[in-house]
């Protein structure tokens, strides 16, 4: 299916003079919420990821072009999260940085942004990444208390202040914990995906199969040393805490459904299929990717794993129920392929973020559906099926966990190493398709090719 | 690792009490600090004959070249920073009496942290019985003198082989090492030095332009070796198992080196080390085999996995990596291999049959590796630490730890940096004449040679 050859005409039309190459990556092992990183802040984790990268590539004192990253659940104190992390790292304090946030696509969007600047010649090197913690999430005060406190601080007299405080009701004292519910629908991401899962008729068994493969693939990659140069331990955690090397279909089948229960009751139809086993757990972690121009990498004697070829971001109308919340990658990928003159089969590896096992399956099902591809994606027919043996070959978020903004960096570094290894084995270029869905009906896809 | 006893007997009331009671009083050792003088006072060079140009004059001239205050006549007032006894020209045991009596007369005025260094010739296979006796005797003499020294002073010997000149670059490099604070915890040792072309020893970045790999570099002695090699100008690659990556990254970032997460027992460890050193730093010149583990058990209770793990990490990994590097011509430009042995490998230690085997094995392969490296102008040596203050020794029960600490002439444990300094010396270009040797860093531990 795969041609294993860069398609003709592609590189000249869309690639400016400079390639943005992926030199390597680093992340800390991902921890389950409330686990080893319970007291680590986003800044602690991003700094740790950065420090491991600096150590691996000898970047001490180096002034990089830019460090870009972010966090989805972010304290207001972390307004300059990435810059503060740079200042706490061994990089030159003259390295600029900024925060970026696009929900779960934060890390991948950061990679796209940094590589675009490199390709434009605006910077020669950069780091892209992300960090997220649900254990150290910000907690805000309720709206009533917030308004009263603000009114008190604005009041000019003692009486005014007392009046403001007097307006506080006991109910206002309950803290607001961060929610990942969609603000416009009030539904959690899981409930949204349960609708999509039911729409596409994805079975429980198929979802459990994806989850099981994720754990087994990830465990095999760890055991084979794949992550030796992609991960640096942190706070005593040396491997992804969520990984279950001994997971089995039988064990997964015993788990009760957690999403889609209301849906099943109201519609009176589909059995709920989404469990804690085939949905990603809440996780803490951080990841970074080192990018540069070829010339920079060469001048610094750094390896080159792959290059970022192109990327596409899509958004879908999930608010009115027209499309599933996490279906944007289904739209982004065909547009990206068309621009690059590629077919869906032209890839050695597919890295599709496992927000839920069913996200992967609904996306694949959509691409295989003639009707959907014609009416929703504007294609002549089905985009096609992928060779499933090339999907998430070293595991993905179901096993590793999904610290929202850190997932993009994890996937990109993994994909870059995979294509580099494949190219070294076969002597031919290798190519990976990366896609990450995100809250707000967003999705980012990228093409990565061995360099 | 604080040695509270050492602090107590060197300060305040407890110092007075310890003195009155005649308790052992380990001294604060004189360790290398950039900018400090090489020795704490004038250097007395003994063993020469007045009016005749001889080896003692050659050594004295070399020392003058280091801007030292050098004398060849003892007087009654001077307090000596070091006493160098040149015995290369003795032909009979009868020749010893003169220089030895001179040394004895000057010893009381050796400053704290002072040094006694003998420069002699090793007994050779072709020596007459008389000559061999004269030369071999220095060994027992020096080790005995070292045990009589106090206040952090040490005694060591340079033993010339194969006609090496006393003022040849490597002989002087060894002499300089023994005189300096770098050898603070090396005591009662004789180091063989052969003839070799080498640059002169220097304190000014002796390892500049050299790429060094240190295995087990995340903590303890390994981290100290990495820091010391980096201080001496080397670009350092620190290697440790992936699980130790966090500490490894800290060390790498501190010394502006690179971290390589790697299990040294992996079949491709040598290839990955070489690939990293070459592609990232342009070559590999110094390899320090420091990675090692302990799995102590009495032999009667030893399990195969405990035995095998120790042999795999401490010995087989070194052999496999060396094989690969030598086969791939991976070490270049006067290469240096320094391996960590242990006094347990020399004297043996109860509960450490596996460890003792592995460390004695290191000594064995070092001699053989040295022969192989000679062909490419390189050296292989081993360093055998005694009781060193690390996390590992801190876990020894109190009483056993105190006994082990005091069971040396210096009556204290060494610091990781003491081991590191010895390795940095053996790794230096000036040490070209030192190969196949085991240098003990043990404060003249009472066990073994």
Largest sheet of chain A: 10 strands, mixed
Number of strands of chain B: 13
> Please, how many helices of chain A?
16
Helix content of chain A: 25-40%
Proper CATH architecture of the largest domain in chain B: 3-Layer(aba) Sandwich
Computed Rg of chain B: 22 Å
Average pLDDT of chain B: 92
Number of strands of chain A: 14
Beta-strand content of chain B: 15-25%
Calculate the mean pLDDT score of chain A and round it. 91
Can you walk me through this structure?
The complex is a heterodimer of chains A (451) and B (449). Chain A has 451 residues and is of the alpha+beta class. Chain A is built from 16 helices and 14 strands. The radius of gyration of chain A is 22 Å and the shape is globular. Chain A starts with 9 loop residues before the first helix and ends with a strand. Chain B is of the alpha/beta class. Chain B has 2 domains: 163 residues, 3-Layer(aba) Sandwich (Rossmann fold); 231 residues, Rossmann fold (3-Layer(aba) Sandwich). Helices cover 40% and strands 16% of the residues of chain B. Chain B has 15 helices and 13 strands. In chain B, the strands form 2 sheets. A 7-stranded parallel beta sheet of chain B has the order 9-8-7-10-11-12-13, with helices on both faces. In chain B, α9 packs across α10 and α10 runs parallel beside α12. The radius of gyration of chain B is 22 Å and the shape is globular. The interface between A and B is medium-sized, with 24 and 23 residues.
Task: Summarize the model shown.
Chain A is of the alpha+beta class.
Would you spell out the secondary-structure blueprint of this structure?
The complex is a heterodimer of chains A (451) and B (449).
Chain A: H1 10-14, E1 20-27, E2 31-32, H2 42-57, E3 66-70, H3 81-87, E4 97-99, H4 106-120, E5 125-132, E6 140-141, H5 143-154, H6 158-166, E7 175-176, H7 189-200, H8 204-223, H9 249-253, E8 257-259, H10 261-267, E9 274-275, E10 283-293, H11 294-299, E11 306-315, H12 328-340, E12 349-352, H13 357-368, H14 370-375, H15 397-400, H16 407-426, E13 431-438, E14 442-450
Parallel strand pairs in A: 3-4, 3-5, 12-13
Antiparallel strand pairs in A: 1-10, 1-11, 2-10, 5-10, 6-7, 8-9, 11-14, 13-14
Helix pairs in contact in A: 2-3, 4-16, 5-6, 7-13, 8-13
Chain B: H1 4-8, H2 12-21, E1 43-46, H3 55-64, E2 70-71, E3 80-86, H4 97-107, E4 110-121, H5 129-148, E5 154-160, H6 169-179, E6 190-193, E7 211-215, H7 220-231, E8 235-240, H8 245-254, E9 258-261, H9 269-281, E10 286-289, H10 304-327, E11 336-340, H11 343-347, H12 353-374, E12 379-385, H13 391-394, H14 398-406, H15 416-427, E13 438-441
Parallel strand pairs in B: 1-2, 1-3, 3-4, 4-5, 5-6, 7-8, 7-10, 8-9, 10-11, 11-12, 12-13
Helix pairs in contact in B: 7-15, 9-10, 10-12
């Amino acid at each position: 299916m795969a041609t294993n050859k860069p398609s003709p005409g592609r590189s000249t039309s869309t690639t400016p003079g400079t390639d943005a190459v992926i030199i390597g990556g680093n992340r800390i092992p991902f921890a389950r919420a409330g686990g080893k990183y319970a007291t680590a802040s986003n800044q602690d984790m991003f700094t740790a990821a950065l420090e491991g990268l600096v150590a691996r590539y000898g970047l001490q004192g180096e002034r990089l072009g830019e460090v870009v990253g972010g966090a989805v659940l972010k304290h207001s104190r972390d307004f300059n999260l990435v810059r503060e992390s740079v200042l706490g790292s061994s990089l030159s304090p003259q390295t600029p940085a900024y925060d970026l946030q696009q929900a779960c696509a934060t890390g991948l969007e950061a990679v796209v942004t940094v590589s675009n600047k490199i390709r434009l010649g605006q910077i020669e090197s950069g780091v892209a990444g992300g960090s997220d913690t649900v254990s150290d999430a910000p907690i805000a005060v309720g709206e009533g208390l917030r308004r009263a406190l603000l009114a008190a601080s604005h009041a000019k007299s003692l009486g005014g202040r007392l009046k403001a405080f007097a307006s506080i009701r006991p109910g206002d004292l309950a803290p607001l914990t961060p929610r990942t519910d969609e603000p416009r629908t009030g539904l959690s991401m899981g409930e949204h995906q349960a609708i999509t899962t039911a729409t596409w008729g994805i079975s429980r068994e198929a979802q459990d199969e994806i989850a099981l493969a994720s754990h087994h693939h990830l465990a095999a990659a760890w055991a084979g040393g794949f992550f030796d140069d992609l991960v640096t331990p942190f706070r005593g955690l040396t491997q992804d805490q969520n990984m279950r090397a001994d997971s089995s279909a039988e064990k997964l089948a015993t788990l009760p459904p957690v999403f889609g229960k209301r849906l099943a009751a109201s519609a009176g139809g589909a059995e709920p299929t989404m469990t804690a086993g085939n949905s990603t757990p809440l996780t803490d972690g951080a990841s970074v990717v080192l990018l540069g121009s070829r010339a920079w990498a060469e001048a610094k004697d750094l390896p080159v794993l792959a290059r970022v070829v192109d990327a596409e971001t899509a958004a879908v109308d999930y608010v009115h129920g027209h499309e599933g919340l996490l279906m944007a990658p289904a739209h982004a990928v065909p547009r990206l392929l068309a621009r690059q003159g590629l077919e869906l089969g032209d890839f050695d590896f597919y890295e599709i973020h496992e927000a839920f096992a069913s996200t992967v399956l609904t996306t694949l099902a959509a691409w295989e559906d003639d009707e959907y591809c014609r009416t929703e994606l504007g294609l002549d027919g089905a985009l096609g099926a992928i060779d499933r043996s090339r999907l998430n070959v070293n595991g993905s978020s179901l096993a590793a966990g999904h610290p929202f903004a850190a997932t993009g960096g994890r996937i990109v570094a993994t994909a870059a190493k995979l294509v580099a290894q494949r190219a070294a084995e076969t002597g031919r270029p290798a190519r990976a398709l990366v896609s990450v869905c995100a809250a707000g009906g967003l999705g980012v896809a990228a093409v990565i090719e061995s360099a | 690792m604080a040695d509270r006893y050492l602090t107590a007997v060197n300060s305040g009331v407890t110092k007075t009490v310890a003195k009155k009671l005649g308790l052992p009083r380990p001294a604060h050792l004189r360790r290398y600090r950039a900018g400090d003088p090489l020795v704490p006072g004038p250097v007395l060079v003994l063993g020469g004959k007045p009016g005749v140009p001889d080896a003692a004059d050659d050594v004295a001239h070399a020392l003058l070249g280091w801007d030292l205050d050098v004398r060849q006549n003892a007087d009654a007032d001077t307090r000596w920073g070091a006493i160098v006894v040149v015995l290369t020209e003795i032909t009979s045991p009868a020749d010893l009496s003169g220089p030895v009596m001179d040394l004895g007369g000057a010893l009381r005025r050796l400053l704290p942290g002072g040094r006694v260094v003998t420069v002699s010739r090793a007994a050779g296979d072709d020596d007459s019985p008389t000559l061999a006796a004269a030369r071999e005797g220095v060994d027992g003499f020096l080790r005995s003198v070292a045990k009589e020294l106090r206040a952090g002073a040490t005694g060591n010997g340079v033993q010339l082989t194969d006609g090496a000149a006393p003022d040849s670059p490597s002989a002087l490099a060894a002499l300089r090492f023994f005189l300096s604070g770098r050898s603070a915890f090396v005591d009662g040792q004789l180091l063989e030095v052969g003839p070799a072309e080498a640059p002169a020893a220097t304190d000014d970045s002796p390892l500049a332009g050299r790429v060094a790999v240190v295995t087990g570099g995340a903590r303890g002695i390994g981290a100290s070796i990495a820091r010391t090699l980096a201080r001496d100008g080397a670009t350092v690659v620190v290697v440790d198992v992936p699980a130790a990556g966090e500490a490894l990254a800290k060390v790498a970032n501190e010394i502006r080196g690179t971290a390589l997460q790697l299990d040294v027992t992996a079949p491709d460890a040598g290839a990955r080390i070489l690939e990293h050193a070459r592609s990232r730093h342009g070559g590999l010149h110094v390899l320090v085999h420091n990675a090692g583990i302990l799995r102590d058990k009495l032999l009667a209770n030893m399990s195969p996995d405990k035995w095998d793990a120790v042999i795999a990490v401490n010995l087989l990994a070194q052999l496999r990596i060396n094989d690969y590097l030598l086969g791939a011509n991976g070490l270049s430009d006067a290469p240096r291999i320094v391996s960590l042995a242990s006094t347990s490998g020399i004297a043996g230690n109860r509960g450490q049959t596996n460890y003792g085997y592995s460390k004695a094995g290191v000594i064995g392969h070092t001699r053989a590796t040295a022969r192989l490296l000679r062909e490419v102008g390189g050296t292989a040596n081993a360093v055998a630490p005694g009781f060193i203050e690390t996390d590992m020794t801190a876990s020894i029960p109190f009483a056993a730890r105190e006994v082990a600490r005091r069971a040396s002439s210096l009556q204290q444990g060494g610091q990781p940096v003491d081991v590191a300094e010895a390795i940095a010396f053996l790794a230096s270009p000036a040490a070209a004449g030192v190969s196949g040797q085991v240098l003990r860093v043990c404060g003249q531990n009472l066990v073994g040679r």
